[in-house]
Each structure stands twice: as C-alpha cells, then as structure tokens.
Predict the 3D structure of the following.
Amino acid sequence: MKKIVSLTLALLLIVAMIAGCRAEPAVKTIVNVGAIQGPTGIGMAHLMEADKNGTAANEYEFTVSSVPSDVGNLLASGNLDIAAVPTNLAAALYQKTQGKVQLLAVNTLGVLYMLDNGNGIDSIEDLKGKTIYSTGEGANPEYILRYVLNKNGLDPDKDVTIEFLAENTELVAKMVSGDITLAMVPEPNVSSITAQNKEVTVALSMNTEWEKVAEAGSKLMMGCVAVRKEFLETNKTAVDAFLAEYKSSIEKTADVDTTATLCESYGIIPKAALAKKAIPNCQLTFVSGADMKAQIAGYYQVLFDSNPKSIGGKLPDDAFYYVG
C-alpha cells in the first residue's frame, strides 16, 4: 500500500511539474523596429496594435520618425534591428555598412501622382513644355520622374522644367492655394491637396506610368523593410516571425477604417480622415524572397544609371537580399 501511495504521489508530482512547465510563458525576443511616417509606415499599424495587446510573437519596441535618414542611421548604428525605409536608402546602407544591412521585404510600390489644376494633362506627352514641381531632388522622386519622361521621349532637361521644393508641406500649400498648378506629389499629401482644393485632379499615377515603360518586369518599389545582418544571424526565428506578422499586418490594411484609426493613434499619419482617403492609393504590398529580388533589380538599375550615389555607389550583390 505504501508503495502504491508513494507511486501515486510521484506521478501527481510529475504531472504538476509538467503542467507548471506548460504554464510558463514563452520568452519573447525583443525587436527594435523603426518606421517612417506616411506610406512606408502604414503596413506596421496592425502589428503595433498586436504588440500593444500582447498578441505579437515578439516583443516590439517601435520608433516612428518623419525623417528617413534618421531611421536609417539608427539601423546602421545598431539602435534599431529592423526598419521600414525607402528602398534606395536600404541599398545605400548596405554599401555604407559593408554589408551589415540586408533587405527583408518590399512594402510599398509607387506612391507618386501627377496633380493637375487646369493644364489638361492626360498623358506623359502632355507634360512637354510644362513646369513640374516636386520634392525629392537627388532622391527617388527625381529619378523616377526622369526615367518615365525619358522613356516617353521627353528630355527632362530640355522638354520640361522641373522645380524642386524642399518640403512636402510647402508643395501642399502652394498647390492648395493655386500658386502652382502642376506637381508630382506623394500620398498622403495627394489626398490632403485634393481635399482642400477641388480644382486639383489626379492626372497620372507614376506607378502606372512606370509599369508601361519598365523593362525586364521591374516594379516601382519605393518602400521596404531592412534588417541588421548581425541581428538576423542571431535571431533568425524572431525575424521570420516578424515577416509573417508583418505580412499579416499589411493584409489587414484592407480594413481601411480600422487602419486609418491606428495610423492616427501611432503617429503614422496625423489624422484618421486623411489616412482613410490616402490608404487605398498607397500601393501597399508584401513581396519577399526570390520574387522581391527579381522585381526590384530593374528599379535599382534605373537608380544606378541616374545617379550611382543614390544606392550607395554600386548595385547591391546577392548577399543584400534575404531570401529565407
């Protein structure tokens, strides 16, 4: 009898120990993530909410900034592990850090639109002889505009006049007031302008115009998420979990109302009403692995041909791409 009692107690103790082990919460990996206000950051909104609710696979610490270079510097210096940045910046950081930054996934296609107020613009050819205002001199917007103009038989230095402004806030103000009547503008500024000045119309999508003339199936891929190689090598499971959650977060942006509210809550877009109008035009996507590598190669070639410095001086090699 004593043996039976002892055996029973031992079994009960083992069961209790197993139950206790199962009840012990899994330790989550802390991941420092950076995002940029505007389209590049929108896909992060639902992941931010999951993290706040404690349902995310990792424990995320988010930093949201309005300045892409600041986010890039934090990634390069090791203060961030993963960051949503412009695709040209990711390539430049790869060169600057001697390969210590890798591309994880593309999150945003073309978010630039040609806005018109009374110029009768229906095609790229209609831009001949016009003055086009824009931001982004020496960055993605300039190279995209020049490429599309060239491919449509227009010399950017002779057939049009391109005037660059320093800030999108100035571009918005001048377009709203009517001081300028033709501009290439990114979302969510497009939605802000058209809401305030009903005379302004969206004449052209630069994403559509790119696809009309692009070679070798290249896509206009303007936003991405990049990772520190050292963090990836020591936390591959956590990074793969992030990618799965991030893809899901981007897919949930189809619920525009909820996404818009979250964008305001997390400082990605200042007002939910503006976000609601802009999100459908932000070309959010999730492309990773071999597909990402194949589709972005042509875009990097265009940037390199326009200005090698825009992507760090040379085309990124295969080691730049994380393919799983």
About this structure: The radius of gyration is 24 Å.
